[in-house]
Amino acid sequence: MTLQDVAPPLLDSLDRTFVECSALGFQSVVTSILAVACYVIYRRHRGPYFLTWAIAWSVYVVRLACMSAFIVRRDMVFLFLHQAATGISAMLLLAAALQLSHGFRLRPLHAVVVPLSILWAWVTIYGMGSMMVAGITTVVLLSGVTIATGVVFWRARDRVPSRSAATVLSIVFVIWGLHHLDYPLLRGFGAAVLYGVFADVLFLFAIGLSFLFLVLGGERERLAARSAELEQLTRLMLRVQEDERRRIARELHDEAGQVLTAVKIELELDGRSEAGALVGRALNQVRDLSNLLRPAALDDLGLLDSLRALVDDFSGRTRIQVALDLEGANRRLPPDVEVVIYRVVQEALTNVARHARATDVDVRLTTDRREARIIVEDNGRGIPPDASPHVGWLGMRERVTALGGQLAIGAARGHGVRLDAHIPLQEAAS
């Protein structure tokens, strides 16, 4: 046999080794990025399963390095280390899935997986006389653990932050587990490494995207919980504010009002009519302030009479004509809803008097079994282009949204402003 006969197979073998090691190196880079990403997510969000995933993918990188070393050196030690790292990484991936889905906790006792994986690698590499039997045993165990991981994700779809991410993870791990069964057949055709790397990289990309959706799903859940807490706090603050207004209005009406009335009577009896008139003016201001804080008619007579009194008082003070349509409001509403409707109409009329330069205002209230609707529309100058929401608008919106409703402020059919608020009665009643 000449040198010319030996050189081509040797060069082909070197080229094949270089290609396979390069492919494994690329897979190691992708896996390392995934491990680092999991660790960064763990540091930011403190999900223990992300730490387990970071460790699992790091061990997986060691597995790939051992495979590359075995391809170059053909030393059974590297194949033994590869088998041990394979078992450890597979069990860690399964543990992370259990942590995410069932709240599984890793304890010191679970570290027994490491010596068991090393023992299993020793038996498959050095204990078994046949590499075929060892390879089949390894593939079946690895495939079973990977498929079990996919089953865990599938059964936990409704308990994880993102159902779609759990579904993708379950499908990827099941297919990945089935893919492991291809290795004995592909190795016989000499395509195991390249085909395996190509498939594994695709799986890693799919898993990385699923992790991203898990994080986004968790953030969405936390945002929703935070929003619910803020809505509850807003509703509580508004309720406390109304209770405080009611208390202050009662104190002004009962205490200050009675004292001023008594003083006015005493002054008039003494013939001091001018002083009595001044006290009477102060008494009227106290009553107006008490009515502004919390109209007594809202508690005593209900919403409709309170709105009529509000409109009459507004027209008398501002000379702006208000058309009040209450024909669609034919029943009493929950107290919280009545307070919000009154405050919305009150604030809307206040804005008309301050900013609209209007001469006419239409106020319409309609109710049915599902919702109450308030429309306030004026014929004023409209909303300036550079206008920004002020405290009054924000307060109205907070009151309406606290009851699960919606409030829109826009241009009217003419040049004025139209306020349209919808309040669901079922949510408000609950």
Number of strands: 5
Please state the average pLDDT score: 80
Helicity level: over 70%
What count of structural domains? Answer: 2
* Terminal CA distance: 93 Å
Structural class: alpha+beta
The fraction of residues assigned to DSSP E strands is 5-15%
Pick out the low-confidence regions: 1-11
Strand adjacency order, main sheet: 1-2-3-5-4
Q: What is the tally of helical segments? A: 14
Care to give the gist of this entry?
The protein is 74% helix and 9% strand.
Question: What this model shows, in words?
Answer:
By secondary structure, the protein is of the alpha+beta class. It has 2 domains: 3-228, Rhopdopsin 7-helix transmembrane proteins, CATH 1.20.1070; 299-429, Heat Shock Protein 90, CATH 3.30.565. Helix content is 74%, strand content 9%. The protein is built from 14 helices and 5 strands. It has helices spanning 3-45, 48-73, 76-102, 113-127, 131-155, 163-180, 183-189, 192-269, 273-293, 296-300, 303-318, 335-356, 391-402, 425-429; strands at 321-328, 360-367, 371-378, 406-411, 417-424. A 5-stranded mixed beta sheet has the order 1-2-3-5-4. A hairpin with a 5-residue loop joins strand 4 and strand 5 (417-424). Helix 12 packs antiparallel against helix 13 (391-402). The longest helix is centred in the middle third of the chain and has 78 residues, at 192-269. It is elongated. The relative contact order is 0.05.
Helix-strand blueprint:
Blueprint: H1 3-45, H2 48-73, H3 76-102, H4 113-127, H5 131-155, H6 163-180, H7 183-189, H8 192-269, H9 273-293, H10 296-300, H11 303-318, E1 321-328, H12 335-356, E2 360-367, E3 371-378, H13 391-402, E4 406-411, E5 417-424, H14 425-429
Helix pairs in contact: 1-2, 1-8, 2-3, 3-4, 3-5, 5-6, 6-8, 7-8, 8-9, 8-13, 11-12, 12-13
